[in-house]
Amino acid sequence: MNTDAVATDSSSAENISCIEERLNGVSYNDEPPTKPGRYKKWTREYRYTFYLFILNIFFDVLINYEAGSVPVMLNWIQEEFKFTTTELGVMGSLNYVSTVMPCTLWSYLFTYHSSKKSLLASILIVEVSMILFGLSVHKYMFFAAKFFKGFGQAGYALFFPIWIDTFAPPNHRNLWMSIVQAGLTVGGTIGYVVTSLYSYAGKLGWRYSVLTQVGGFTITVALLWMIPKQFIELNPSRNNVNFDLCTCEKPVNNVSTTSMETKCVNDENHDEESHLRNNVKRFHSIDVDIPPVHPPTQQKDISRVYSNCDSSLINSDNHKCINCLMSIDKQHKASAKTKNMSTIRKYICVCKNGIFVLTCLVISSIYFVLFGAQFWMTKVMVTHFNIEERKVFLIFSYIFMTSQIAGLVCGSYLTDKIVYNYPNKPLYVDYALIGWTSIVCLACIVMLSYKNTMALFIGNLVVFFYSAPITPVVLLRSIQSFDHGLKPTASSVVMIQLNILGFIGGTLVPGMAVDLFESDLAAVYTIYSPSFVSLASFLIIFIIKRSRTARSTINHGSHSKIDVSE
């Protein structure tokens, strides 16, 4: 393969030493190549990727801290600042209203500008808004703080699923997504527990809780600043991939050349070498044609490995097989098409995908139930059933923490096992998702039928346990189904629909129902009814996938030759 990075000459020894010097130690050795989609543990790349993964968890915990703290504060804030029930619902939903508005802006920033600077800006906006919330002396200050928090939160909410899809090891993407999603549960639970403990500090306890959250943000932002940007950037030269390479697992038979083992190289370290700077980039490897310096018997087949791409052995000298031709042609067309799309056309292209829209509806319905229950059920238990406030705090803290975390761990483990053991049966994952959603619907039917304290406590335990593993799997699948150039747009669409139908609906609509029907039980009906929308959407998605699978099987059997022109 010819590259623009290095020009070969007859002096092979000088060539090798020059290349090794310029690439800062990137050379071939006798170690076997890294398996596709896996990192060599504790290399620089692996360490920084893992550190940022941990920071992602902390950010998710801190951002969602108030999902648990605000429900505890509701009665205190309402009493001190004379909020009506509807105003409390508006305050809770403002965070999500403002998350919808800047999604297009954040999508543009992460696509065309530095991801690290954009991420830092979004988190700093969240931190400043929480300072304003903790120092509020008037109800309008609460509204302003919640609005700006949502504006900053939109950037992080768009960033982390794409980052996981880009940087996570392919065999553990579901697990990584589930762990980061668990930050939402852990954050809400920690906020719930910590704010409950601060209730012993008197009237200022809720302010201490908010300032505790601000202190956590300050520490994590400082740690994020120290991570090199190449481990944060979402679009690491992926449009420059050479589509003329074969990804088949074939041995390299050409003994006149040797390949260097490739590793991830940051182009920032080579500014003085302009001819290398545009070719040696992260997640890109280079093949250099060098005259043989060893006898043919000592030459080894070194694979060209992408650290993040699902490719194995790539040999530019081999003739491409039929699968490679089809894959390369599709990737080339998709990359060229999305690269020249305007922002509006990208949104139209994403929204034309019916399964994607239904998937967004599933996520929104589930979060409507989860956030509605977290935001309103404490108040319903205290005001309607006259249960002591601290007992409700203790019971719901246990439910929110144990059920969601256990559900995430068990669900992600089961999903990874299904994907690993049945790679050719993608509908098996849909079977699991439909089963979990059906159990959630049964629990909701029980709660809506009996409406007593025991039914509500046990029902919420079941709902949170079986809803938790659904969201990370569905969210990751919705992002993975698009070309890399469309991922930020798809993520922003998920966030828009999630915030409008899920977060805003879950916090605002139950409060309006209580004021309209003058009964706290109206909130219970409003919160748990959307679970049936999730089940219906999953069934429609399953029917569509099943019909497509059947058609593809029929077409495959009726054609003896594959049409490469497609």
TrEMBL record:
Alphabetized UniProt keyword annotations: Membrane, Transmembrane, Transmembrane helix, Transport
Pfam families: MFS_1
PANTHER family on file: PROTEIN, PUTATIVE-RELATED, SPINSTER
Transmembrane segments: 48-68, 88-111, 118-137, 143-163, 175-194, 206-227, 355-377, 392-415, 427-448, 454-476, 488-509, 521-544
Membrane protein topology class: Multi-pass membrane protein
InterPro entries in UniProt: MFS, MFS_dom, MFS_spinster-like, MFS_trans_sf
Residues covered by the Major facilitator superfamily (MFS) profile domain: 52-548
Recorded family membership: Belongs to the major facilitator superfamily. Spinster (TC 2.A.1.49) family.
Superkingdom, taxonomy of origin: Eukaryota
Alphabetical list of SUPFAM superfamilies matching this protein: MFS general substrate transporter
Keyword Transmembrane helix: yes
Keyword Cell cycle applies: no
Official protein name in the record: Major facilitator superfamily MFS-1 protein
Organism of provenance: Theileria orientalis strain Shintoku
Compartment list: Membrane
A cellular component term, taken from the record's GO annotations: membrane
GO terms, molecular function: transmembrane transporter activity
